[in-house]
């Protein structure tokens, strides 16, 4: 199962780009700013969520154009039948994402029934050095791809947290009954959020355990919860920490304090202290593990932005080999064709320049 | 270009929910064409509402009499009070004529971020109504939103010591709904709220 007949209309710098006869491996080459990553971003919007740049819909429409865009692709099934997936905005409602599946209106969540899309971009290179909040967002994005309901718990937990922090920041200790009401919501969604993250990390660990340790640095993941995973226990902890939280000006216990700990398994060194290449290798390993975990009978697409260029020739070939063993359709970008030696003969290749794609 | 008066009318209508400038102009044009019939009727109806509109001192409903038509209705069961966030919710519930008791309109929902505190809502009035006696059941019919549920939790806790049964609208499977199409959150809620059959 893979995507084909991809059409970008008025999307970013692509006025009208069509990519036909896609293969298992697809390569987009071109100069910086040519519009390669924009193609990957368009593909990432064929899954629920905000895509690989988390951009506002208005920013996705071509600058200087009419202000709306469309992205479509055909999903070829095992029996050669096609499912047409599309997402677009309309001129009168440019901030509302609409979805069509097989010519019928559908929700963005329904896209997830057909397709699982994962990605790795240079923007994620600092994940292990960044704040813990970035890693929490990362965990949530990966979890949503497996359990769509995770997103609602994350949003409601965040809203309840803002309410509690505001209430505690007043001049006087707020009324207990009001805090009780907010904490009931905070505990319910907070526990669901933490349990979802815990399940995700367990699943990734199981996938990573089966992966070879070489040549990609194998990461050891540990989920460190910032509070109890049980709803009742979290609710009780919140009651007991009211005074402390009030003094601190924020809620000190709960999934908003979670941490995803990543260690280079073979050397037992925290990922943040590893070399850039080792960090990239661990990110690739997690991306591949998540791809396998999230697939669950659906078509799977991996978007790898500027990945090959950061790897030495041995690891590059090993990556292509690993990707060939999996079943995901792969889309890669690069500035030079040389980085794709070893896969070029099997791949569909497009030269991208000035918002247009030319099949090579 | 229409006259200043017509523009003023269109601008006033455009602010109404669900209308906007284009629909407002269309409504004005419609009224202008029917200035002998529909326009005086509308003016008269508006004037009448303006003269008589009051908030019910018992339940907070908006009506042309105080107590409102519902509170004054002897066929209504005053021992049962259904608490709603807004008048719109009361109307939605009463349109279906399923609830035979009386109502209590809070006038909003608790929100620390929006600065809506318990004393900004008609919660004290509700507690007073219940304390006066004669109430058997309070039905909390808040929205299933974060603020709505926080408000319901708050009121339930404030009523803990009062001799009254507190119930809440069920959340879960909609009538005619298929399990296959429900999101996980709703399904989980429906499972949690399952009850014996028969």
From TrEMBL, chain A:
GO biological process terms held by the UniProt record: DNA replication; DNA synthesis involved in DNA repair; double-strand break repair; SOS response
UniProt entry keywords in alphabetical sequence: ATP-binding, Cytoplasm, DNA damage, DNA repair, DNA replication, DNA-binding, Nucleotide-binding, SOS response
Gene Ontology cellular component annotations, sorted alphabetically: cytoplasm
UniProt cross-references to PROSITE patterns, sorted A to Z: RECF_1 (PS00617), RECF_2 (PS00618)
One Pfam family from the record: SMC_N
Binding, ATP: 30-37
Compartment(s) of residence: Cytoplasm
UniProt signal peptide: none
Classification via InterPro entries: DNA-binding_RecF (IPR001238), DNA-binding_RecF_CS (IPR018078), P-loop_NTPase (IPR027417), RecF/RecN/SMC_N (IPR003395), RecF_2 (IPR042174)
Lineage top rank: taxon: Bacteria
Record GO terms (molecular function): ATP binding; single-stranded DNA binding
HAMAP family linked to this entry: RecF
PANTHER family linked to this entry: DNA REPLICATION AND REPAIR PROTEIN RECF
Assigned protein family: Belongs to the RecF family.
Name of the protein: DNA replication and repair protein RecF
Source organism of the structure: Qipengyuania atrilutea
Lineage: Bacteria, Pseudomonadati, Pseudomonadota, Alphaproteobacteria, Sphingomonadales
Gene encoding the protein: recF
Automatic annotation (TrEMBL), chain B:
Taxonomic superkingdom: Bacteria
Database matches in Gene3D superfamilies: 3.40.1360.10, 6.10.250.240, RecR Domain 1
ZnF (C4-type) ranges: 56-71
Residues of the Toprim domain: 79-174
SMART domains in the record: TOPRIM
Function noted in UniProt: May play a role in DNA repair. It seems to be involved in an RecBC-independent recombinational process of DNA repair. It may act with RecF and RecO.
A GO BP entry: DNA recombination
Keywords: DNA damage, DNA recombination, DNA repair, Metal-binding, Zinc, Zinc-finger
Name of the protein in question: Recombination protein RecR
Molecular function as annotated in GO: DNA binding; zinc ion binding
InterPro entries found in the cross-reference section: DNA_Rcmb_RecR, Rcmb_RecR, Rcmb_RecR_Znf, TOPRIM_dom, TOPRIM_RecR
Organism name: Qipengyuania atrilutea
Family, as annotated: Belongs to the RecR family.
